[in-house]
Amino acid sequence: MSKNHKDLDDPAKISSSPAFGWFPPHMLRAFKRLEKEIKNVELVVEVRDARLPISSSNPDLVELLAGRPRIILLNKCDLVSPEDQLNWQDYFSRKKINAIYFDSQNTKNFDPIFKTIEKALRPFYAKYKTRSIRAPLPRILIAGLPNVGKSTLINRLVKKKRQQAEARPGVTKSVDWIMLRDKYLLMDSPGILLPRLEREIDSFKLGWISTIRDDVIGDILLATELISYLISEVKLEIEDRYHVKLSPDIQPLEHLEIIGKSRGFLKSGAEVDLSRTAAAVLGDYRKGILGKFVLEKLPR
Ligand SMILES: Nc1nc2c(ncn2[C@@H]2O[C@H](COP(=O)(O)OP(=O)(O)O)[C@@H](O)[C@H]2O)c(=O)[nH]1
Ligand SMILES: [Mg+2]
Fold first, then answer.
1. What is the pTM of this model?
2. Is pLDDT at 209 greater than 90 in this prediction?
3. CB 219 within 8 A of CB 62
4. Best mutation site among 104, 147, 152 for ligand 1, i.e. most ligand atoms within 8 A of its Cβ?
5. What is the mean pLDDT of the chain?
6. What's the rounded Cα separation, in Å, for the pair 275 and 256?
7. In what helix (H) or strand (E) does residue 73 lie, and over which residues does it extend?
8. Of 97, 55, 46, 95, whose CA–CA distance to 74 is shortest?
9. How many C-beta neighbours within 10 Å does residue 73 have?
10. Nearest atom of ligand 1 to the alpha carbon of 191
11. Ligand 1 pocket by C-beta < 6 Å: which residues?
C-alpha cells in the first residue's frame, strides 16, 4: 500500500499534515466506500481534468481497480489547446491507456464515450455469452478527484439534473445507482480520490483547477503563484487582459497590485483590494481567458 492509504487510516496524521488538512471527514469515509464499491463494478470511468492529465488523478486507483477495465476521461478539454490534446492523446495511446477528451458542459456527441465503454466491456459480455447466460447490466463507477466534473458528466449522460454539480470541491455526498440508456448502471462516487501532493507546485496547480479549495491554500497566494506561472508560460494573454506590463523581475505580490490597480479594485484609502483581484484572476484563468494549455509537461 502506498503512503496515501496509510495516511487515510490515521486521521490525526491527515489533519496535522498540511497537504491533507483540507480533507474533511466525510471524504475519508467516502474513500473507504469507494474502495468497497469498486469491487462490485465492471468498469471504472476515471474523470480527470484535461489541464492536469496525470496529476489530477490518484495513482492508487490502479491498485484499487485490481485488473478491472478503466477508461480515462480527460474532462474540461475546452480549457486546453487542440495541439495539447493531440500530444497527450498520443502519449496515452502509446501507453495503451483508453483516454478520451471531453467537454462535459458543451460536447453534444457522446458516441466516443459509448464506443469506448462498449470496447472496454467486451470481455464482460463475452464471459456471459460463452456460458449462454444473459449478461446483467454492467455497473460503471465514475471516479475522480473533487471538481473534475463527474456530476456534470453524469447529468449530461442521463440528460437529467439528478446530480448536484457545484464549483466547490466535495459537494457530492450521496452515492446511488443511475440507469443509463437502459443498458448500464452508473454510480457517481463522491469526490474523494486524493491527489498526490509530492511538490508544492502540484498543490498550486490543483488549487488553480479548483480540486483543492481556494481557502485551503489562500486566494492571494494561489493567484500570485498563478500569475508567476502565467508570466513564464503565456505572458501575452494576461498582459492583454488586464492592460498591464508584467515582468519576472518584480515581486509576485506586486503583479497582483498592478492588476488590481488597473481593474480599479481599490479599498478606501486607495489601497488595492488584493482578495478581490485574486478572485478575478483565478476566475479568468478558470474560464480559459488567460490561456488554454496543459499545466504539466509531457513525460518523455
Ligand atoms: N469548462 C468546463 N467546466 C466544467 C466541465 N465539466 C464540469 N465543469 C464545471 O466544473 C465544476 C465542477 O463540476 P462537478 O460536476 O460538480 O464536479 P465533481 O465534483 O467531479 O462532481 C462545475 O462548476 C462545472 O460546471 C467542462 O467540461 N468544462
Ligand atoms: Mg460531484
1. 0.87
2. yes
3. no
4. 152
5. 86
6. 9
7. strand 70-75
8. 46
9. 25
10. 19
11. 75-76, 78-79, 103-105, 144, 146-152, 165-167, 171-172, 191
How distant is the alpha carbon of residue 171 from its chain centre? 14
131-135, 184-188, 283-287, range with greatest mean pLDDT: 283-287
Using a CB cutoff of 8 Å and minimum separation of 24, what contacts does 2-10 make?
2/59, 2/60, 2/63, 4/58, 4/60, 4/194, 4/196, 5/60, 8/32, 8/194
Contact present, 68 and 41 (Cβ < 8 Å): yes
Task: Name the residue ranges covered by the structural domains of the chain.
Answer: 3-188, 218-286
Substitution candidate for ligand 1 out of 49, 104, 110 with most atoms within 8 A of CB: 104
* Mean pLDDT computed over 249-262: 95
Question: Residue 118 pLDDT > 80, yes or no?
Answer: yes
Amino acid sitting at position 6: K
- Is the domain defined by 3-188 classed in CATH 3.40.30.10? no
Query: In this predicted model, what pLDDT tens digit does every residue of 56-65 receive, in sequence order?
Result: 998 888 888 9
pLDDT beyond 80 at 299: yes
Element of type H or E holding 154: helix 150-158
The secondary element (H helix, E strand) that includes residue 201 is helix 200-208
**3-state SS, one letter per residue, for 232-293:** HHHHHHHHHHHCCCCCCCCCHHHHHHHHHHHHCCECCCCCECHHHHHHHHHHHHHCCCCCCC
Give the dihedral sign, CA 35/197/91/116.
Answer: positive
CA 259 – CA 74 distance, rounded (Å) = 32
Give 279 or 249, the one with higher predicted confidence: 279
